[in-house]
Amino acid sequence: MSARETEQQPRHSDYSQRGCPVEASLELIGGKGKGAILFHLLEGTLRFNELQRRLEGISQRILTKQLRDLEECGLVHREVFAEVPPRVEYSLTPKGETLRPVILALMEWGKAHAFDILQVKNSA
C-alpha cells in the first residue's frame, strides 16, 4: 500500500464508538495548515496566492494538497475562472461555514492556553 493510499484511509472503519465523532472531525480538519486555511477563509473568498502569503511556512505543494482534501470533504469550494492568467478562488461551503464557531473557539482557547503549554513543552 502506497503512502498516498494510507493517507486517504480513515483511521477507523466505524465512528460509532464514544469519542469517535471528535476523532472523525479532527481527521477532516486536522493536518498541516488545515485549521489556518479554514480560519483565513472565514474572512471570505481568497485566491491561492493570497492564502499562501497568509500561511507562512507552508509549501505550495502542501497547501494544494490540503485545499484538495478540504474540497473533497465538502468544506471548501474551489472556483476556476477561464481567464489569462487563470484565476482560482477558494471559499467555505455552507458545510464549511458550520465550522465557524469551532474555529473561533479554537482560536480563543489557543490565545488562553496553547502558547503557555507549548512554551513549557518546548523548554522541557
UniProtKB/TrEMBL annotation:
It holds the Pfam family HxlR. Keywords: DNA-binding, Transcription, Transcription regulation. Residues 20-118 form the HTH hxlR-type domain. Gene3D superfamilies: Winged helix-like DNA-binding domain superfamily/Winged helix DNA-binding domain. InterPro entries: ArsR-like_HTH, HTH_HxlR, WH-like_DNA-bd_sf, WH_DNA-bd_sf. PANTHER family: TRANSCRIPTIONAL REGULATOR, TRANSCRIPTIONAL REGULATOR, MARR FAMILY. This is Winged helix-turn-helix transcriptional regulator. The lineage of its organism: Bacteria, Pseudomonadati, Pseudomonadota, Alphaproteobacteria, Hyphomonadales.
